[in-house]
Write a structure and sequence with these properties.
The structure is a homodimer.
Chain A (H helix, E strand, L loop, with lengths): L3 E6 L10 H9 L2 E5 H4 L9 E5 L4 H13 L3 E6 L8 H10 L9 E5 L4 H9 E2 L5 E5 L7 H14 L2 E5 L9 H10 L7 E6 L7 E6 L12 E5 L5 E3 L7 E3 L6
Parallel strand pairs in A: 1-4, 1-5, 2-3, 2-4, 6-13, 7-8
Antiparallel strand pairs in A: 8-11, 9-10, 9-11, 12-13
Helix pairs in contact in A: 3-4
């Protein structure tokens, strides 16, 4: 009996940004695994079971979903944003690689979603108009020296930088340290954005510069965007200024 | 009279990956601008005018759309993938910054889309499971030395690298040069993927390694993905191997 696992990106939160493919895949699943906060976004459906788990239990969640898919069930795992960008997809494939051989024969489909990166950029204008990178500040999963090496390389090479997982109760100092490091590499006027809960009712966006950026503005729902030296700010008669990074680079 | 411009990401091509927000925004527009090939993807609608233009006419297209929005029309500009990722959004904001003051008062909404990067990653498994970057190989818009500097920085820092605009008739040698440069920075076993027209009927995916990668596999519809040293390949009893980059980094 061949099981099926869908790894689904729910997008940033606004239901109008959930793709029809993701909606159809969710509707076809009889078992849905995910972080409780993401499961709560999905409208309940008769005959569909929910398997909520905590934020930090990604490995156990992936294995539980795969084990159930192996029995022939139609299983889905959900992530906020895109499951492939610091979401559940990598945890699933890691579990497959080191799991029982039967898991290699499962049908696994990854359904892309609007990542926080794209949703935040769209809100601001076009800050990703040129070359960019995404870095997770979580040092649960890598040494802090790897993070600092990447920040220095990215700033030096002129990438716009998106920082995922900038802060949490368990990671209180990392963003402050990252901003301090970037201040040594980039002009103080470089735009910095703290974008929290984007497209959700409690959305909050704060524009700053590297000189004035306050790490306390970030929590675990925040994506922090650091411009490059080329990123420009357009003031408007009313409303938040726009940010964009020109396609032409020096 | 206050005009409105929506800058809409159509996603990679599969209509099931067009977000409801993008579909609603398209339906509300009376004038739609874009590269002809992208406009052809949108179902015709009575009372809606199309303004197709060539691939290379981004600046003129942005200005024409803004000028029409200024008259009070409901205007949309479309991009494939996400308009903010090497799409039309940066061209629009550049036109606004250097255009007439009235354009600063326009209502401009950017509607995110599933970028090629996310669609390709989803097809492959989870190659973006860790820190990554996106680089355009187009040297119309920046000196080739900027491209090489960024490639070296990204490879050295351990980013997975997505190469946009890898090849076209006007840019025949750049991808070969980029691959040669990366061979000097990364092991020959590093996975390389040529993903063309992903989610469209003529989708074509070729898995290679840095040692064997042949630049001739890319055309202007191709996204090239270069793994990091950490990216892993999972062989399967049947079907294309999966690629993923573990969340843990050394």
């Amino acid at each position: 009996m061949s099981g099926r696992l869908a790894v689904i990106g729910l997008g940033p939160g606004d239901p109008a940004l959930l793709t029809p493919q993701a909606a159809a895949s969710l509707a076809a699943a009889t078992e849905v695994f995910g972080y409780g906060r993401y499961l709560a976004r999905i409208p309940p459906r008769a005959g569909q079971r929910r398997h909520p788990s905590d934020n930090r239990e990604e490995d156990a969640r992936a294995r539980a979903a795969l084990a159930l898919a192996e029995t022939g069930a139609a299983v889905a795992i959900v992530s906020g944003g895109d499951a492939g960008v610091f979401g559940m997809a990598a945890a699933v494939f890691e579990a497959i690689e080191f799991g029982p051989p039967a898991w290699h024969a499962l049908e696994v489909e990854v359904i892309p979603g609007i990542s926080a990166l794209l949703a935040v950029a769209a809100r601001l204008g076009a800050p990703l108009g040129h070359d960019f990178c995404a870095i997770s500040l979580s040092d649960n999963l890598k040494p802090w020296t790897t993070v600092t090496r990447r920040l220095i390389a990215a700033a030096g090479a002129g990438f716009v930088i998106a920082l995922y997982n900038p802060a949490s109760r368990a990671r209180p100092w990392q963003l402050g340290a990252a901003l301090a490091l970037l201040r040594a590499c980039l002009p103080g006027t470089t735009p910095v954005v703290f974008a929290t809960a984007v497209t959700r009712p409690d959305e909050r966006i704060a524009l700053a510069t590297l000189a004035t950026a306050d790490a306390a503005l970030a929590d675990m729902r925040t994506l922090v965007l650091i411009g490059s030296e080329a990123t420009r700010r357009i003031e408007r008669p009313a409303g938040t200024p726009w940010l964009y990074t020109p396609r032409h680079a020096p």
